[in-house]
Design goal:
The structure holds 2 protein chains of 2 kinds. In chain A, helix 1 runs antiparallel to helix 2 and helix 12 runs antiparallel to helix 13. Chain A is an alpha+beta fold. Chain A has 3 domains: 84 residues, Uridine Diphospho-n-acetylenolpyruvylglucosamine Reductase, domain 2 (2-Layer Sandwich), CATH 3.30.43.10; 119 residues, Uridine Diphospho-n-acetylenolpyruvylglucosamine Reductase, domain 3, CATH 3.30.465; 206 residues, Vanillyl-alcohol Oxidase, Chain A, domain 3, CATH 3.40.462. The radius of gyration of chain A is 22 Å and the shape is globular. In chain B, strand 8 and strand 9 form a beta hairpin. Chain B is 35% helix and 19% strand. Classes of the chains: A alpha+beta, B alpha+beta. The interface between A and B is large, with 87 and 90 residues.
Chain lengths: 457, 481
Amino acid sequence: MSTVAAAESVHRELASIVGEQNVEQGNEQFAINGVVPGSVVTPASAEEVAAVLALANSKELVVAPAGGLTKQNIGGVPERVDILLRTTKLSGIEHYDPGDLTISIHAGTPFAQPLAQMAEHNQWLPYDAPNLRTATVGGCLATGSAGPLKHTAGGLRDFCIGVHFVTAEGRIAKGGGMVVKNVAGYDLMKLLAGSYGTIGVITRANFKVSPRPRQTRTFSCEFSSLDEALAFRTKILQSPLTPICLEVISPGAPEYLSDPQPPKDPDHYAPSQPVAKAAGPWQIVLRAAGSDNVLARYSKELGSAVTRALDGAAEAQFWAWVSDFEYSVLRRHRNAMVMYTHLPIQGVGPAFKAIEKAASDYSFIPAALGRAATGNLVVAFMPLSVDPPSAMQYANCASAFRGMLPAGSSAEVAHCPKEAKLHFDLWGTTPHDIAMMRALKKAIDPKNILNRGRFIV
Amino acid sequence: MDSSIIRQLRKIVGNESVLDRPEELMLYEYDGGVDKSRPGAVVFPANAQHVSQIMRLASQNKIPVVPRGAGTGLSGGAIARKEAIMLAMARMNKILEIDIPNQRAVVQPGVVNLEVSNATAKYGYYYAPDPSSQKACTIGGNVSENSGGPHTLALGVTVNHVTGLEVVLPDGRIVEFGGKAQDSTGLDMTGFFVGSEGTMGVVTAITVKLTKLPEHVTTLLGIYNSVEDAANTVVAITQSGITPAALEMLDSWMLRCVEENVHAGYPVDAAAVLLIELEGIREAVEEQAEAVAAVCMQQKAREVRRARDEKQRQLLWLGRKTAFGAVGRVSPSYYTQDGVIPRTKVPATLAEIQRISEKYGLIIGNVFHAGDGNLHPLILFDPRDPKQMKASHDASTEIMEYCIKVGGSITGEHGVGSEKKHFMPALFSEDDLQVMITLRNAYNPDSILNPQKVIPDLRFCREITGGLPKAKVEPVEGLPV
């Protein structure tokens, strides 16, 4: 059979599962790092997902699950994508009981939707990853996407209590349940969270809901050096204070903590004021929750270190910008490289020094921010406008940066130009035994049809 | 057990570190649950290399291996069959590192839970998960079962406090997952291994998070004339925007039982009490204490007491944490359940348990984590009376079935083990279980490690788990095997 005939036959079979109107030919809109999928299919139930996957598995077709398309370019350039499986039609809140503190949400639901509903009951998921208006529940869980609230609340993996998914072989399965504490069976929530769609296609997820703080205030503290900033962070960690966010912001980052500006030249570093500015301050930013009394205690403890306090809309805006940092960078510099780090607490200092060193050695402008006490930094390397980087420059910068991180750290390249992606290992080495991860992947997806070539497994 | 195997085990760990005489093995035939079975040999490895050599030996000879911590587990997780090697982790009991700047400790699996907190308190830190058996249970066991405890309501269970593992696989390979960082690139292997009940690997070192001791802690005792009012309070506290550090309930029978034992000052004529703990910075705790007390009164509490000092607070908790022991004083044996239900179903479930108690003529006491709907009904029975044995079993099954019916789970923190695995098909479909088996088989294909645990022997999966002699758990009359 010719390729065209084969594609047509796949299209026909997909249409027989989900209906003609829910299958379309792949186009640029759905390209993953430039690779246009063969077909785009939008199943409306877990059963349809299972049928699509069973078909794909029998024909060894490569499937890429897709939610709100906000993070599709993270990871490797796939060799091919035969089927893009959209979760858009798996949408809505299946069950939410404010009294039980649990919610069950279909995978294709944009995250902002359930958050808005929870807010009506003064509840929330302590979750503030970027793009929640479009990013879906399934996509956020699959990518382990997180924001500043990770400081106290952990990631989605820490409050995901149940997950429904379909395996590559078309098996409809679940882990966990609908109660906030549950150890029956293996913890498949942990396995699927951050697995980038390689273990199964998530169709629904259940979460433990919390009461939402009635009042918060944000305290921004400025320092002239990284060491002073981190010494202050350590002081906070040793104090009785329990902020809900604790961010460290590098001098280069505030440039991107603002509303998006139209890019002048998206290929190059182009700050609003292209003249070299005096180095700005390092910032430690805390967000505290509590009554007036509690917030007064924070003011007292933090004392003169506080240069700015934010409440209300200004505060919400500031944290939205922090969440959105990497996308703000990417909107302005199409060629920027963004990395995510995983560091021990004491690795944050060395990591920032490594960022500065790697950037200057390989002609990038650095900007970074992140969770000062969980070691999850978002690191951006912007190419200099005078010197468009070669693919090798990204590779060398990333590997030099990784090489300077303390033992037990890991850092993956989330975004960089696709031309450069082909030349190096985006995921890097990990403290996890890679053979162990691959053994799991091989067991659950023996033909490697789910997101082949995009993730570490 | 085959004498050549015993000889080889002695060669690996030394003569004194292998037990195989029946009178020695008797001590290892039970855990905190009710099932019993005597292992073939008990081996005490001193390090990961020992464990690796033992696993290799066992794999080659297809001998089942069952790891064991302190044996405080309540689901038969540490029960081994006659032909199995029991891997007792008691010698691996060192805290390897306390790293305060990184808020981590690295410990061996045999370290007792409370010892981690004791060793780090001087730096102002502690290890948060606090099973009631924390004076005896080990971190290795906690990791295997993903143990909880009263204070996991606000801070999470074991899996939320473990960032790295060293694991010996059934084939003897020693592998590492994670480390001191909160997470790492790639699949979350640490998270996946925690709670796998020793069916995928033997944990030989654990990196745990240390939590800063709160500045201020206070404990309230809400006293109720009706269980329903107490249960309603649980929901109302959350609605007021407060997540207590712990929120426990004791019913009237439990109250009397505990009070006789420790004289904690519990009111013996109440229908239920709530033990509510708040922690954090002083201002927050004081305000929340007032708010919680007001909520209790709104929900028709008869009285709200607050521990005046640390001594009183400890006494209130002593009552809670020794509750199971107190039951031991009044009953020859008891069956502890670990069902979880949605929080709003607490009153209905307690009523159902009361009905079941009357139906079978057995006393069932309730002491449980009300904040997260994790029940611990204690079914009292006399194991010498076969009728009571059977009744306790039937009553327990009815309670479990009810928990499942209202959308709950069969275990919140004790694990499935061998005791509850026959309930798994009520919670999970064949496909769900098949996926779990597929994943387990990636590491433990012959089911050498902890066979017959967690996942039931379904007809369809026997071939996959096969290759082993059939289970011969010595039957205890009237109890599930």
